Amino acid sequence: MNTVLILIIGIPLIEIYLFIKIGSQIGAFNTVLLILVTAVAGVAYVRYEGFNTLKSGIGQLVKNELPVYEIISGATLAFAALLLILPGFATDFIGILLVIPITRKMILKKFIKKEKEKKSNDKNFIEGDYEDLTDDENKKI
User: Fold this and answer.
1) How far apart are CA 33 and CA 124, in angstroms?
2) Looking at residue 52, what DSSP letter applies?
3) How far is residue 27's CA from residue 53's CA, in Å, rounded to a whole number?
4) Can you give the pTM of this predicted structure?
5) Which listed residue, 22, 30, 44, 59, has the most CB atoms within 10 A of its CB?
6) Percent over 90 (pLDDT), the chain
7) How far is CA 35 from the centre of its chain?
8) Tens digits of per-residue pLDDT, 59-108?
9) Residue 3 scores a pLDDT above 60
């Protein structure tokens, strides 16, 4: 089965299950209030972390360095903000993990390590030297 299809079906099922379980423990009003509070507080914290990432990226540019980590971190923060805005406890948990700098760094290192391993295993190229012979032929004529 396609991974995207599993995610489209699985995430709402997990969220509904968590709504029912948590709602039965703390009540419907408190559940809705908790979802709203996590969305507002999460987006505010994402904004704060986004400004920190932007400041760090500008510092890298001033040093004439490419802010690769800051670009990836900024995209991750945008995705985390989307997850925090979506109603649900599982998406909020994943969003919070992506917002906190320590866990974000750990998650990004894991993905970067996988990509480096994947690229090092690709041997779809041949190394060699070449010599341009067209210039020598034109001189002889």
Assistant:
1) 54
2) H
3) 38
4) 0.74
5) 22
6) 56
7) 22
8) 999 999 888 888 999 999 999 999 999 999 999 999 999 999 999 999 88
9) yes
**Left, alpha or beta for 99 (phi > 0: left; psi -120 to 50: alpha)?**
alpha
43: tokens are: 């987006």
Identify the DSSP state of 94. H
Answer whether 69's CB lies under 8 Å from 75's CB.
no
Domain boundaries, the chain: 11-114
Sign of CA dihedral 120, 122, 123, 129: negative
Nearest to 88 by CA among 23, 5, 3, 2: 23
Other Cβ atoms within 10 Å of 32 Cβ, number = 13
Calculate what percentage of the chain has a pLDDT beyond 70.
89
